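Intended use. Records such as the Niemann-Pick C1 protein entry shown here are meant for training and evaluating sequence-to-structure methods. They are not intended to support clinical decisions.
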Amino acid sequence: MNFLMKMMLFCRCGLFLTALLVVRFQSAEAGNDDGHCVWYKVCSDKDAEFKKNCFYNGMPQPLLDQKAINTVISLCPDLVGGDEIPALCCDAEQVEILDKSVSTVLPYFSRCPSCSRNFLQMWCQSTCSPKQSLFMEVTDTVNETRGISVSGVHYLMKEEFATGIFNSCRNVLDPSTNQRAMNIMCGGLMDDECTVAEWLDFLGSPSKNPMAPFEIVFERYKQDSVNISSKIMYPLNATVFSCAQATDNNTTPCSCQDCPTVCSEMIPYPSYEKKRCFIGQMDCLVFVALLTCCSVTVVIVCVTVVHHVLLEKEAVKSSSLNDKMPIGVSCGQQALLNADDVSSCAKIGAWLENKIEDKFHRWGVLCTRHPCLVFFFGITVSLICTSGLCYMQVTTDPVQIWSAPGSRARSEKDYFDKVFDPFYRIEQLIIVPKNQSQFVAADPLDNVEFHWGPVFRKEFLHEILQLQKQIENLTAEVENKPVMLKDICVQPLAPEKTECMIQSVVSYFQSNVTNLDDEYYEEGFLISNWLSHLRSCLRNPIQVMDTTMFKMPCLGEYGGPIFPYVALGGFEGSDYISSKAAIVTILVNNYDDPKANEKAQAWEKIFINFIKNYKSDNLSISFKAERSIEDEIERESRSDVSTILISYCVMFVYIVLALGQYDIQGYNFLHLFVQSKILLGLLGVMIVMLSVVSSLGFFAYVGIPTTLISIEVVPFLVLAVGVDNIFILVQAFQRGHGKGNEDVEEQIGRITAEVVPTMLLSSFSESFCFFLGALSSMPAVKVFSLYAALAIFFDFFLQITCFLALFTTDVRRQQSGRLEICCCVRVEPSDDVSDGFLHSIIRQYYSPCLLWKPMRVIVLVIFSAWFFSSVAVIDKIELGLDEKLSMPEDSYMLSYFKSMNQYLAVGPPVYFVLKGDFNYADVGMQNQICGSAGCNENSLYGQLFRAATYSNRSYIAAPVTSWLDDYFDWLRPLGSPPCCRLFSENQTFCPATFESAEGICHSCVSSYTSGRPAPDAFSTFLPLFLLNNIKADKNLCNN
């Protein structure tokens, strides 16, 4: 992780560089227009952390050390000209310190050669320029062991020089942190808040920059010369390159991402905002629907009126005609249909209908004659299919339920999971103080008052810290072995640092209660407290040492940064101080192999139970674990079992009441049980359930896993269809009177021939429609459609076998006068059977009312209005699946979703993966991907950078991190020491943490072409780059 200790290294760089700015007091030679030195050599002890140069009031001295000369030529070409030995104000030791100092800073700016060159120019001129006295003035000195050193200076520079350096570097991105590199060097000021004045002020102010050894006052002037204390001085105005310029023939201008000047006209990212049409204040679709509805209503009324008038006229005309005709003469005429008038299609249809009715007539007779055989045939087929439940698999993973296996998103995720392992398992808590009032408090550091959000109250932070520690100590058990968070969490810097990666506001204090309670006093006055530290960290979360007197890191306990937009919520823009919620995010390792996740799932179960039972008077918690959604979907399905059973019981009662004909003959109440349908209704409902189970078992044999959603919904669907068929069959027999001496067999055969073709047609149509639904690529819809289609087919099959056999047996029982509950008891059968209550209501009241002409018009108007009102709002339907709809009403996840929408400021990360045979060692191929100098403007990185520029449209919040640009930086011989080194003796990798003597290790790559390594070097050292992981507090070279 390259960003972990950049701030510390920068501050150390500032230490060395400011130590090199040692200048002299005014002297007799100050009036020399050619200028002279203000220091020479180093006066601090060799083991001193802050090395300072010796005060020196003399002429520049020849630099004789060839290695030092080569370094000056490399870093400061403007100070060396020709083949002469340069006379400079620095010796070899100072040059070495300069080289080490700038090597820690240049990696920030290495993506932009002109920025690097300008930055070096500022320090080279102040360190070794032979005319230092013209633009620097000593303000303070101090006695050292080896002499007098300088401890305070004024550094004068032209406005255009300072602005030129700043402008060339201000937009250079640091890929490891996804922010401008200049933010790291501006005291916590971000992006446009960082100005030239703020930048220079931070570099030279010990109160803001904890690593600055003394005060450096940068003064900017527009004039070429200024009078300082009766002395003419000339502000530095050395050569500065724009970021759009190449510094020499071997470099290129900075990239578009680091230098907007070189960008061609950037086309705005396309907007996907849906434009709405309005007519006045009314939505266009609503207006059209309303207008159409009114028109249709008028047409319905007009047609009805006209039709009524025409009928009245026709009735009057017919009445007049009948009055004029002789008695005995009829005006009616009989219409005759000849065989030639019937079409071939109608003949085929009639023939097919007759054949189907004949087959089902025979089937009805067969069922009546051999009910047991038919019943056991149907049951056997069903039980064979049902036995497949032994192989049933239930899918609960939301990804597998809702994402089509062949979809682009799913295929890309599967590829990523297989190659890189799935993204981390996320355990997250959104903690909201019950006291949401802000409080006013001053930062003791500068005594400026702020309105702090409720999350920054110390007692609230204490409770978060205590809760976090309790979570870390939770213990699960897997295979009789304890599992704690430290056993499953992400540890980015392991094995050097084994702390878990936890993003939390208390991580700014390294999750340490002592750090949280610490206060710094000076002469009895409070100078810094927890608010001072928080304010510093919120401004610059990657600080290794804050700007308070604590000198405390802002990095988390695990060694990485805690970005405020991740750890806080409920703020506007970047006003983190007003935050209303604290976010605790724990990252847990995730694997593509489900068995490897068993430990994490076991710990998550303990975590969920712990948070559910956590009680507090000061805060409320919304939370989720990675397994939460699956658990809640499964819990909802288990709870739906009782709902399904209740529904089937209610439907059973309804069948019994509706199908039974409850008449009392001669005050004999036993007749109630002769014509009741209790057992038949119960068995009919059980057959419906059996058809559902048969469908599940059949597809289990086939190997198609089911979903809990299908198991929940299909029983209700098939119940509705199955009960309809039961009513059709039974009531057709009850209302169909026997013809002559027609026996039971013929009567059942006739009824079967009449109604079963209708049942066949409806069942076939429904099954066919659901099988069409199985063409959907969404697994949930596909599985549901398959199971529903087959269940409806099984329902029809069982009803014309098992149920029909049971029905014929029940008819024989009823005709023989035997009781349904106890068949041994027999009463005198009765042929007088009244219609059911519901049938009477429909026939006597509902049907006549519906057929009343005014009511017809009213019904048409009502349904037309309903239809067009639906059309008016159809565009309000949103695509996508709302996660809340898949959760139980009492689920804790509903609270989490609500809090997530209300408080979270960022979403999950997005990865862009290149697949296929891609030669990364080829410079041309590299230019299509990377984002540093020399890369194509429309490279992959460039296009994503453009998308991030329009984050409100593309939803990409920040520029992406490119491993390729990081690799280029890692290979370059920059840093102290460089990241990539080899042992000179055996050419094996020399770690950056290995402090070697000169000559023991050397840089991996010695030559570059246009800033790129040779193809063989690129491929050779790539494995070392991927495996390199060292302590964050030692180097920039983490990955």
